[in-house]
Design a protein that fits this description.
- The protein is an all-alpha fold.
- The protein has two domains: about 140 residues, Leucine-rich Repeat Variant (Alpha Horseshoe); about 120 residues.
- Helix content is about 70%, strand content about 0%.
- A two-stranded antiparallel sheet has the order 1-2.
- The longest helix has 28 residues.
């Protein structure tokens, strides 16, 4: 008899708990009125559903209605789907930079998808805000320093997903005015993945302090890395003399495995050169390269003729 009563009691308690949880979930799904402000507050489910549909316009509308304060709470939600939606939404609103401190912990999330979304959100927030803009929002230097250091840590983490590492590096490159001091070229040049080494080359500021790394990259055994170094060296030469000891840019443009976009960036240095070997390299590229390179050569020739 006692056993039966115990089982009955436990069943009732479980039903009550389940009803309470269901009530909490239903409350989160329903719109509410803020008692303090009297304003309508849409449910977080609107944000989640917009993200799941990939509807950026609706995601922006939902994020704008929620505002930064509720987005900050969404970033702490127990539902990873809500957190992921909030990470996508934060860069869409003007005040998103105020949530950097709330986004930052998700870079260390055990969930690979959330980590990638956090890196993407931070990269977008930094890219759209230069130092002066950050001052206007009163984002502290400590927050900016921690943010840039976190991106650098992701980029250097050999166990992290390659796409996420590249996203972090691109974010630092786009926010060079904020994150230049956090970029550690020596560590990234030692990466085993050529994609990381190439991304570093493209992220390096064109300043004398980066020259040794550009020259080292120009000697890389992977053509993608060396050609990217050639592209940056050509950009350097637009305002400065060639670096002592750099290989001829035509050699870097002709490397096997070089990407068309890097070859195109080297072309202005070759077409403006009076060296017959550079002219010969252009002819070789025209014969063996794809449409992008051939079209770039055509445009440069027309420009040189004043067409």
């Amino acid at each position: 008899m006692k056993t039966a009563l115990c089982i009955c009691t436990l069943a009732c308690l479980a039903e009550v708990a389940g009803t309470a949880h269901a009530g909490e979930r239903a409350s989160a799904e329903r719109p509410a009125i803020n008692r303090r402000t009297g304003l309508f507050e849409p449910p977080l489910s609107e944000l989640r559903k917009a993200a799941e549909r990939g509807d950026r316009a609706e995601l922006l509308r939902a994020a704008s209605r929620l505002g930064p304060a509720r987005l900050g709470k969404a970033l702490q939600d127990t539902d990873s789907r809500v957190v992921g939606a909030a990470l996508e939404a934060v860069p869409l609103i003007d005040a998103g930079v105020l949530l950097l401190d709330s986004v930052l912990p998700h870079i260390l999330s055990p969930d690979e998808t959330l980590r990638a979304r956090a890196v993407r959100a931070i990269a977008a927030l930094l890219a759209g805000n230069e130092p002066g803009r950050m001052n206007e929002w009163e984002v502290s230097s400590d927050t900016l320093g921690a943010t840039c250091q976190s991106l650098a840590g992701v980029a250097e983490n050999a166990s992290e997903n390659l796409a996420t590492r590249l996203l972090a590096l691109q974010g630092m490159a786009d926010a060079s005015g904020l994150c230049a001091a956090s970029l550690r070229p020596a560590a990234l040049m030692a990466a085993r993945e050529p994609e990381i080494r190439r991304a570093l080359v493209l992220a390096l500021p064109l300043l004398p302090g980066a020259n040794e790394f550009l020259l080292a990259a120009a000697q890389d055994t992977d053509g993608r890395v060396a050609a990217a170094a050639g592209a940056r060296l050509c950009q350097w030469q637009a305002k400065n003399p060639p670096l002592p000891g750099q290989p001829p840019l035509r050699q870097l443009a002709l490397l096997d495995g070089s990407l068309a976009e890097d070859t195109v960036e080297i072309l202005p240095c070759l077409t403006s050169s009076a060296d017959p070997l550079d002219r010969q390299a252009i002819e070789t590229l025209e014969k063996r390269s794809g449409n992008a390179v051939r079209e770039a050569i055509k445009r440069l020739r027309q420009a040189s003729k004043g067409l």
